[in-house]
Design goal:
The protein is built from twelve helices and eight strands. It has an eight-stranded mixed β-sheet, sandwiched between helices. By secondary structure, it is an alpha/beta fold. The chain is globular and about 60 Å long. The relative contact order is 0.12.
Length: 305
């Protein structure tokens, strides 16, 4: 039985798939299985995968296009490893990624997942020195990072190695999400386990024109669902974090909820969320300004953000 199951999600990235696959083969830690999950690609991905002669490669082809998280759940059902790695077919791992993550997990049973530092690359594999998705490569400390995950998704999916036990206890990914299901999954894990972080850049996230992260309308719908789901959970953390930290986190989550409500065409609910955010933190001047902005046409509100 392999120690690591690598869930290699594939969808119409044949240009990048061989590079991603080779970065798996180049890992210094070799006790793994590769479960290649093709979600209905039409660009030759299936044929390329079928041509690979690797004894630890399992192929699962889905013709109905389940989406990222439904596809990952199929992979979880097939996985036999003690640890689960998620790897997108357009990203790249550096050779010691799995080795270092295994060492951290083996020595810290309280850690449920460990992620690494990294950087963004372009379609040609060159490092990006800007913030192409509007944020820096996500980083955390090792420890209890649950509140940090309220502020933003601080974990890149391809940077993660998680215990299979986490998925066995909490269930798999929520297939109702388009692009934020990994954020929701890491959040659920962080509610019950600590999160480990390796400060070495071992994961390269490729940014190109076909990234799902560019489909903003669907991402905003995801954020609306996620922020609504998080709000009632915060009260249950009262014995875990200082009240001042919880108050700021509540205010932030409500302000973010207000913004995605406005972005998705519900300005009345947005104003209510912004006002509730200000009740917890009256110093949030952006929330005051955005209450006024919700009275503007939706297209203008989007431009003002």
């Amino acid at each position: 039985m392999p120690r690591v199951s690598i869930l290699l999600t594939c969808y119409n990235h044949i240009k990048y798939l061989p590079i991603a696959f080779q970065s798996i083969l180049d890992q210094t830690f070799q006790d793994y299985e590769i479960i290649a999950l093709d979600d209905g690609s039409t660009d030759g991905t299936r044929q390329w995968l079928e041509s690979q002669n690797h004894p630890r490669l399992k192929l699962i082809f889905n013709e109905s296009n389940l989406g990222t998280y439904g596809t990952l759940n199929v992979g979880l059902q097939a996985a036999q490893g003690e640890y689960i790695a998620v790897f997108n077919d357009d990203d790249v791992w550096l050779p010691t990624k799995l080795e270092q993550q295994i060492a951290l997990l083996d020595s810290n049973p309280q850690i449920g997942l460990v992620h690494t530092d990294g950087y963004f690359i372009d379609g040609e594999g060159q490092e990006r020195h800007d913030s192409p998705l509007g944020f820096d490569f996500p980083r955390t400390e090792t420890g209890d990072i649950l509140l940090a995950l309220i502020y933003a998704n601080s974990i890149i999916a391809s940077a993660v190695l998680a215990r299979r036990e986490c998925f066995d206890q909490l269930g798999g990914f929520n297939p109702g999400y388009f692009g934020s299901g990994d954020w929701e999954m890491w959040y659920r894990i962080a509610e019950h386990w600590q999160v480990g972080y390796l400060a070495e850049p071992l994961t390269l996230y490729r940014v190109h024109g076909a990234n799902a992260s560019h489909k903003l309308d669907r991402i905003w719908r995801d954020d609306l669902k996620l922020r609504t789901w998080i709000s009632p959970r915060i009260d249950s953390y009262k014995n875990r974090f200082p009240e001042s930290e919880l108050t700021r986190a509540r205010a932030h989550n409500l302000a973010c909820l207000g913004t995605v409500q406005a972005l998705t065409g519900d300005p009345q609910s947005a104003r209510s969320s912004y006002r509730e955010s200000l009740r917890f933190d009256p110093t949030r001047w952006k929330s005051r300004a955005r209450i006024l902005a919700t009275y503007l046409p939706q297209k203008l509100f989007r431009k003002l953000l």
